[in-house]
Amino acid sequence: MKVLIYGAGVLGSYLAHALIQGGNEVSVLARGSRADQLEKDGLVIRHYFQLKTTKDPIRVIRTLDAEEVYDLIFVVMKYNDFPSVLPILAANRSRHIVMIGNNTDAWEMQQFLEKHSETPKQVAFGFQLSAGRRDPERMVAVRTGGQMVLGGLDGPIPFKTELERAFASARYKLTYLDDMDAWLKNHVILILAMNYAPVLHDYQMNKVARDDKLLREVVAAMGEGFHVLETLGYPLVPASQAAFIRNHPTLLRMFFKLYHILPISRFVDGNFSELAALANVFEKWKKEAGVLTPNWDKLQKRLQVKNLSKLS
Ligand SMILES: NC(=O)c1ccc[n+]([C@@H]2O[C@H](COP(=O)([O-])OP(=O)(O)OC[C@H]3O[C@@H](n4cnc5c(N)ncnc54)[C@H](OP(=O)(O)O)[C@@H]3O)[C@@H](O)[C@H]2O)c1
Fold first, then answer.
1. Residue 172 · residue 18 · CB < 8 Å
2. Rounded to two decimals, what is the model's pTM?
3. Ligand 1 contacts CB of residue 131 (under 6 A)
4. Is the C-alpha dihedral spanning 33, 34, 35, 37 positive or negative?
5. For the CA of 133, the nearest atom of ligand 1
6. Beta strand 147-151 pairing with 96-100
7. pLDDT tens digits, residue range 192-236?
8. Ligand 1 pocket, 12 CB below 6 A?
9. Is the CB of 143 under 6 A from ligand 1?
């Protein structure tokens, strides 16, 4: 199938690799030095656990013309990067789009595309369950045999057949969810709370692992975040995850301690601008819900103090 990956960063590059392995005709839309690198070297990925490096030749485009039609477009970028590409996607004549990444505005994005596209669009939302980071010459993926959770907002994804065909021969698992919007919102709570700790300790993960008080606040903040979502009427998805976090705070804190000791914690690419944008959304939710979130507020305040001290 003719597939475009829009956003050739850490996760988009891995998805492109998986779809090439699956026999698809894959192009990536990249910009600047990343586009130069892909044109020069191809798609180079270091598979961390497999101790191997793959190199796929790949077609690179730098702009998406309205008439360039793909069977599927996967948009893989940071939450705060999505708005700039929505008008380009709306102008393009392709029908099937999957937006992948942390996302709190799925409904708004879908409505924008429906309103502004001449070609009727079918939109799904996904999250790739893998991680990695980039180094100067390549992408480093810490999980292969990739996996994505995905779903439509108003019922099952209408272009599931096309998705299944694209992934049929790829070593990649698709898991369809009924309430993707709620899943993404729940995930943002986890990501935000978890990321306070490394940011506050300047990504020195051993310090995070030793800071019991901070990890206690992180776990408590997660529970408060879920309370905000519930108050706004969003279901807790997956329910078992929220129940575990609420019922086993000590176990979770121990897990975070261990996680921050392990080398894998250094491979998940945190990005301050994305976190700040997501934190702003949470502030709005909190106000709307009128729920007390003392642990969350403490973490947010420490972060603000830290940023101010960096600027002065
Ligand atoms: N990396 C991880 O370990 C990980 C794990 C779980 C979830 N996630 C989430 O998955 C999402 C994607 O993460 P990622 O790590 O793949 O991000 P990333 O490495 O920053 O990749 C995004 C790519 O999109 C490109 N891009 C952004 N705006 C663009 C535009 N207007 N036109 C063309 N290209 C554009 C960026 O270009 P430049 O190269 O010029 O920046 C970058 O190459 C995020 O929500 C992230 O939080 C990431």
1. yes
2. 0.95
3. yes
4. positive
5. 1
6. unpaired
7. 999 999 989 988 999 999 999 999 999 999 999 999 999 999 999
8. yes
9. no
